[in-house]
Amino acid sequence: MMCWSILLFFYFFIFAFGVHFKGGTITWAPIDPYDNGTSIGITITQSYAWTLTHEPCTSQVPGSSSSTYLMCVADCSTNGGYSTAPINIVTNCTSTSSSLDMMKSEASKKTTLSSGAHFYLAYTGGNWASLNDPPTSSLSWSILTYIDLRKRSDGFINTPPVAKFVSPQYAVVNRTIQINIPVSDVNAGDDVRCRWSTNTSIDECGGICYPNTVPNTTTLSNCTITFTGHKARVLYAVAIQVEDFLDSTSNTPMSSVPVQMMIYVQPEPNCLIKPIISPLDRCLEVEVGDSINFNISIMNLCTPTVAHIADLVVLSDVTGMSRSNLTTLPTNLSLSYVSFKWTPHANQIGSNQLCVLAFTSENLQSDTYCATFIVSNSSNRCLTTTSTSTTTTTTTSATTTSTSSSSTSSSSTTTTTTTTTTTTTTSIVTATSASTISNVYVTKQKSVLMIMSP
Fold first, then answer.
1. Is 331 left (phi over 0), alpha (psi -120 to 50) or beta?
2. Which of 108, 179, 222, 363 is the most exposed place for a label (fewest CB within 10 A)?
3. Residue 358: C-alpha distances to residues 278, 338, 362, 423 (Å)
4. Which residues, at least 6 apart from 83, have a Cβ–Cβ distance to it below 8 Å?
5. Could you give the CA distance from residue 222 to residue 354 in angstroms, rounded to a whole number?
6. Angle value at C-alpha 117, between 199 and 126, nearest 5 degrees
7. What fold is seen in the domain 276-360+375-382+427-452?
8. Burial class (CB in 10 A: 0-12, 13-18, 19+), 109
9. For 305-359, what is each residue's pLDDT tens digit?
10. Peptide bond preceding 134 in cis form (omega within 30 of 0)
């Protein structure tokens, strides 16, 4: 009887993960980078992607794995006591998209380790869904991160980079795409690099190590994957390590964060024009404890009857920020928007980044758009100033009148017209008591919004 129970559990585990697991990432951060104690508190964050129809959105994702843990796989003699209280892989559903059959889960859990601990932590298992052409099934996975609590040469504990992405990515058959992996690092000046995961002395990628699970023309440069799929309806998987270095001359990574995702090659859609996310273009200010509301708009450049906006997916969310469902304007079917609401708290002072990605009904995706909200405890706000300039233009015209008679005479009249134009310009200026922070930073796909607290 027990053998049957074990067999059924094993079958369910393989079915549950093999069918709907779509990749993920694991990162960590010290609670206090300047902690000089013998015990150091850290937060370990797991983010995973799932197929919504196979894994419901609950507070326990995946639903059958409360006894599965992140395990130390290398340098375990210096893991600082992690093995005595390992962290399980259960996460909370954070966002869903029924139109894309997509669900994202995440969990941040705290633990305390001995100072100077350094070791490799991994989530291992199997199986991936069938990958490649011809299809290969039963491939295992290993999602590995490197934790190092030893002090950096500049005197504090490192905080590793963070990578935000969506899985799967969609590629159109026989068309080359570039998949940019948005990465950020709170330690200013660190050099962040991406490389393919390997399975040499330490297994970083299980059965999806490069180049075995992607077309042979696939490349990785500066955290951007260049990919071309030559056969439609084929699923691939990639495994990448994001690492930070003290500077551009260093060859020793201070940490290593995994990124594992799927790429699906789809038939050519009826419309190949990707949607555009309109950047937020004004300074927003709010006191801690007050709510702000804003919309992120998406423009559909395809004929709406051919392809419409399916959803706006949040890649990197802000704690406590809620969103509405996608709304399409009834008066203009090419314009859609999602409303966001947020009440920042005092513990969110600093940078808070929101990253989103729009999809059409044919799975064509926009460029990633990120907005960084800066919450400050300064009493200064975004100030609106008005300036007026006056321009005077003088126009001179000459008129010549001629008459004919036995003798010809002519006269010339000069008319001078003065036009005064007044131009009123409204600008937003931000001042701070300690330092100056730029008020609004807007590029094609990125903006920084100032949010001030008194």
1. alpha
2. 222
3. 11, 11, 11, 38
4. 72, 76
5. 22
6. 35
7. Immunoglobulin-like (2.60.40)
8. middle
9. 999 999 999 887 888 999 999 999 999 999 999 999 998 888 887 778 888 999 9
10. yes
Query: In 3D, which of 116, 96, 112 has the Cα closest to residue 104?
Result: 96
Rounded CA-CA distance 154/340 in Å is 39
The verdict on pTM exceeding 0.90 is no
- Long-range CB contacts (< 8 A, 24+ apart) of 385-389? 385/426, 385/427, 385/428, 385/429, 386/424, 386/425, 386/426, 387/424, 387/425, 387/427, 388/422, 388/423, 388/424, 388/425, 389/422, 389/423, 389/425
Which part of the chain has CATH 2.60.40? 276-360+375-382+427-452
| Helix (H) or strand (E) run with residue 197 in it | none
3-state DSSP assignment of residue 303: coil
Strand order in the sheet with 224-227: 177-180, 224-227, 219-221
447: its two tokens: 């903006």
Single-letter amino acid code for the residue at 291: S
> Tokens representing 16?
């549950």
* CA neighbor of 72 nearest in space, from 84, 55, 57: 84
Contact 53, 87 (CB under 8 A): no
- CA Rg value for the chain: 29
Do 392 and 420 form a contact (C-beta atoms < 8 A)?
A: yes
List residues bridging with 108 in a β-sheet. 45
Q: Which two tokens stand for residue 371?
A: 């907005």
Q: Which of 335, 330, 337 is nearest to 293 (CA)?
A: 337
